[in-house]
Amino acid sequence: EALQTSAHLLFVETMSNPLLRIADLPALAQLAHEAGCFFAVDNTFATPVLVRPLEWGADFVVESVTKLIGGHSDVTLGLVGGNNDMQAELSQVRSIWGFSSSPFDCWLAERGLDTLPLRVKTACANAAALADWLSHHPAVTRVIYPGRPDHPDHELAGRVLHGGFGNMLCFDLAGGRAAVNRFLHQAPSIPFSPSLGHTTTTCSHPATTSHRYVAPDEKERQGITDGLVRLSVGIEDLSQIQGELAKGLA
Length: 250
Hints:
Blueprint: E1 9-13, H1 25-34, E2 38-42, H2 47-50, E3 60-64, H3 65-69, E4 78-82, H4 86-97, H5 103-135, E5 140-144, H6 154-160, E6 168-173, H7 176-186, E7 202-204, H8 216-222, E8 228-232, H9 238-249
Parallel strand pairs: 1-2, 2-3
Antiparallel strand pairs: 3-4, 5-6, 6-8, 7-8
């Protein structure tokens, strides 16, 4: 309905945060262009390793370099890329408003690029294995991961993503917020961090971080419960991550 009005931009995430719904990039690109508006994609969760939205028809792609691309949680940086005439205008805005990055931050980001494919593929493999392992744990009532057949967008993810289903997953604990607090206390080697994409595994609690200001009925509608934990899976040895999760879930 919004595209029937005077919309100028359709903006989506490749994978939504935190429930990891997958955007049908080619279909959305067609819808946007038929309506005469630009199509932009936040590709932070997937990175260019898994999908390159410009190849699916996006006009712009946005990446939080702070996350997986940087990979070490030591840089605050983002990028916008595109295949159209707006690039010159974006460059001018960046220059006028002082959005240019420091040379050192750019060096840190370039360092991250050297290992990005290796890190993403390893983290994806760990996440897939952990999703299956968590699905059989008695303390877990729900696992959300696009690589699992029970994910609502599993088939779409297989068409849009290549080489893996991402390093992010979510799981629901039966005991709600109390169970989450216990998990955080009992698994100190999985740090609580609203950010993501580090080489080490971290966790977050969407209900009190990214969605803390969302009305309770809307959170319920979206499926964001008090027991939902978001996991950013790192590149540690799989048994090490499983062992720490087991302590938290005990």
